[in-house]
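Newbie here. two chains, one complex. Structure please?
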Amino acid sequence: MGMTITEKILAKHAGRATVAPGENLWCDVDVLMTHDVCGPGTIGVFHEHFGADAKVFDPAKVVVVPDHYIFTADTKAHRNIEILREFAARQKLPYYYDPDFMTAGVAGIPKAYRDAATTAYRGVCHVALPQNGHTRPGELLLGTDSHTCTRGAFGEFATGIGNTEAGFVLGTGKLWLKVPASMKFEFTGTMPPWLMAKDLILHVIGAIGVDGATYAAMEFTGPAISSLNMDERCTICNMAIEAGGKSGIIAADAVTLAFVRSRTDKPFQTFTSDADATYAKAMTFDVSKLSPTVACPHSPDKAANAADLGGVKLHRSYIGSCTGGKTTDFIAAATVLAGRKVAIPTFIVPATVEVDRDLDRCKVGPQTLRAIFQAAGCTIGPASCAACLGGPVDTFGRANEPIHVISTTNRNFPGRMGHKDAHVYLASPLTAAASAVAGKIVDPRGYVKADRAIGLA
Amino acid sequence: MEKKIRGKAFVVGDHVDTDQIIPAEYLSYNPADPAERKYFGRYAMSGVPAPASGLPKGNVPFVAQGQWTSEFTVLVAGRNFGCGSSREHAPLALAEAGCKAVVAVGYARIFYRNSINGAYVLPFECEADPAKHVRTGDEVEIDTAAGTLTDLTTGESWTLAGLGSVAGIIDAGGLFDYARKAGMLK
């Protein structure tokens, strides 16, 4: 019987010829990622169980990316960066991305990096990992963050784990994993210029619910997926967790290989699903029939067409995060904001310093993205997770009042962006930008030129 | 595993995510520091909107203002408990508050794994959705050997699903002890 891409990758990492859903396997880990929120706890678990002088299983396979609580005056958050620094130095970790603009003992919100080109800091882990060559097809990557599933976009198995599990991996390089059942989501048709990957995944989550894929691997296929660039594929896999998925995955193709080879020299093996592989469920969507989609408060599965939410007045638009703060997300937003003014406070947060540099390197028409956003009246912050998950009260863009926010982020559970009674609407960068101009939720169709290809490879 | 877990029940609904179990603003406390770890108990379940906190009436805090632990021993929830973020601080917060077990229709997978691998709370599944029947404050008892949840206040009882393939990890006392028993670790 055939196997899915997910089953093949897990079998390889467990030293097995075949595996079946439901089996528990001890798997070898290729990359373990942690950050400033879960790193200190993970390090604590590691030393508690392996000893004060213990060494990590392989320094080159441990990637530490501070990104969550950087631009805050929270002294414990500053202390957590010191814990990561000390650990990385003692373990001689080659891939620790230090927020070098933060000085130990200096109180207040750190002044951001002066030059995005020279800082060791990177920004949001889920975007920084592929950019810095830590993502390869066929590998097994674990991270102490639920959106670790983002990396399935590169044809690898990637999932989020806890501190205890990560502490265990630090010492052993292994973890038990249950082989998930696979679900297949096929996208046919041609992407219209006003539709983005965010619309596709919000539509899927709306169709199956926030627990519709619990413990399953969500496999995305079809010509519309093949047409997407890597940023867009990441958006789709990023939100697999929002349907309860253990992982999201898209088999590597020429687009994937071109990106990966430009970022890493390490060899890798690609896998694809067999034609006779077994799926717990299969669904097909024709993208040419989908409309710009918004997830209403307070759950990512409360999907509605943007066009049907015209009455919803907004107080803020937020464009950022691992889901919606990548370079091509900002190119999309800029196509709407070029030559227009925002009617409500609009926050722009590049996911990483590389995306931040792209705000100056990429243009829509004659202007750079940064110039377009500035002229439109947006407020641009430094690369970080920022207000996506609320965080400390002084976090850039945090909803500290019960306001209505349209956001390109991934979650809108109560209190997610700060205030428990804030209403968060999840949308694509196009919809968030168009709604910023209108001051209320609008369908972006009226704001996008028909000849503009959005998010395509 | 304790044979019987008895105490007051705290009831919530479907899809309670980890931001509600422990809000992000408290994640800068370091769980590896014993003095800071207890703050997770203080703020456990503090992100649940008041009308949904302690059903069916609501407006019941899981941990009373200014306290470090909860008067509730068993958490009864609906579908997809612990969805969202991977933060292990969530089951840790429940355990720090004194909660010993959760009975839910189902769990998000990372919360479920964290509960078991870190040996924080016992995550029992019950398809019959006792959260629709048990009232916050009811005295309840979980018989782990018999696999039942009984509301001692009303006399109602439900059968819990078996723990399946993770029972060995729970019996061992978490991931590390399980791996030691299996000979993977010294």
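Moderator note: The two ends of chain B are 23 Å apart (CA to CA). Chain B has one domain: 4-181. Thread marked as resolved.
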